């Protein structure tokens, strides 16, 4: 539950649209590439977690093998990872909630819906959920784990509902051309490898399982199971959701006048998306797909589930960070 709670989040609920803009239907391959890279890291984590079953994750493992200086560097890298991930998920969560509030005509002022770099002034909802999750963690690990388990069940239920509706509605024509932007570069940008670099963020969090080693019964056995098992479950869901989204709604990227795919988030892309109903332009792609299938009520339900469940990722990121600090 900790692993799935940490992994399934903004990556699948929000980044699906960005991956589609970078790779089109080829984002299915991007999910597999990112999963393989994460699996190699997860195997190493599993082996080390069974040998050194204490909190601290990669910091502890590095300290035990390579010494204090390199461990210090790894520890701060982990703190940065969890901080950035928690912040990104909080912003993604606020996007879903603001979408629901705006649809109900009770939205916040635009100044409070986004940060300065996204055309607003202060992201009130992102700030509030981060503060609320931190307060929950103050009450202790057992209560936090109980809340996380409930949120994970909500997320899994929402994804299952999406798969049941979207996969049977998939149209093979929506997968052509399969690689409209080619392979691209693994350093990011447009293409299958560029999308894989973005999708890697969707898997960030599996390593948070190892930070809970001291609170785990029989960590030598259960930590590896949690690491590998959560990664496997999430990969299956990601592929099914990706197939359903592409097949049901289409995922061809927006091109500029020269026939080159626009960079997600660029000024040209934002301008092209104004008034567009394309999947790549949606801030809530799964709900968007369901609405395109005339399942508006289910789209609303999935959006509500994402709003309720995405805080579990923030919970796990901040939980892991406290373990690194300690």
How would you portray this structure in words?
Helix content is 67%, strand content 0%. By secondary structure, the protein is mainly alpha-helical. The chain is globular. It starts with a helix and ends with a helix. The relative contact order is 0.23. The mean pLDDT is 82.
CATH superfamily: Amino acid/polyamine transporter I
Strand percent estimate: under 5%
Q: What is the end-to-end distance?
A: 23 Å
Poorly predicted ranges (pLDDT <50, ≥5 residues)?
none
The amount of helix comes to: 55-70%
Strand runs, count: 0
Features:
globular, Amino acid/polyamine transporter I, 326 residues, mainly alpha
Produce the secondary structure layout.
Layout: H1 2-7, H2 10-13, H3 15-23, H4 27-51, H5 58-66, H6 68-103, H7 124-138, H8 141-166, H9 192-203, H10 219-249, H11 267-273, H12 285-292, H13 296-309, H14 311-325
């Amino acid at each position: 539950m900790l692993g799935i709670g940490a992994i399934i989040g903004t990556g699948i609920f929000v980044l699906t649209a960005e991956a589609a803009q970078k790779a089109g239907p080829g984002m299915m391959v991007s999910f597999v590439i990112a999963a393989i890279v994460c699996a190699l890291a997860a195997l190493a984590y599993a082996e080390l977690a069974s040998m050194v079953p204490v909190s601290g994750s990669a910091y502890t493992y590095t300290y035990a093998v390579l010494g204090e200086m390199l461990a210090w560097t790894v520890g701060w890298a982990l703190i940065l990872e969890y901080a950035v991930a928690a912040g990104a998920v909080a912003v993604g969560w606020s996007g879903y909630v603001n979408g629901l509030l705006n649809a109900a005509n009770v939205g916040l002022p635009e100044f409070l819906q986004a940060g300065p770099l996204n055309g607003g002034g202060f992201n009130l909802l992102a700030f509030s959920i981060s503060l609320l999750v931190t307060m929950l963690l103050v009450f202790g690990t057992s209560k936090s784990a109980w809340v996380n388990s409930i949120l994970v069940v909500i997320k899994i239920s929402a994804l299952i509902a999406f798969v049941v509706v979207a996969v049977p509605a998939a149209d093979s024509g929506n997968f052509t051309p399969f690689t409209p932007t080619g392979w691209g570069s693994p350093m990011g940008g447009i293409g299958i490898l560029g999308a894989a670099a973005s999708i890697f963020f969707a898997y960030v969090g599996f390593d948070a399982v190892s930070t809970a080693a001291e609170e785990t019964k029989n960590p030598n056995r259960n930590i590896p199971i949690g690491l590998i098992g959560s990664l496997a479950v999430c990969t299956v869901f990601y592929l099914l959701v990706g197939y359903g989204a592409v097949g049901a709604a289409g995922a061809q990227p927006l091109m500029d006048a020269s026939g080159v795919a626009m960079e997600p988030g660029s000024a040209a892309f934002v301008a092209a998306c104004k008034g567009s109903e394309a999947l790549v332009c949606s801030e809530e792609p799964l709900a968007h797909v369901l609405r395109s299938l005339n399942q508006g009520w289910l789209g609303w339900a999935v959006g509500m589930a994402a709003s309720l469940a995405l805080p579990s990722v923030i919970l796990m990121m901040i939980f892991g960070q406290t373990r690194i600090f300690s």
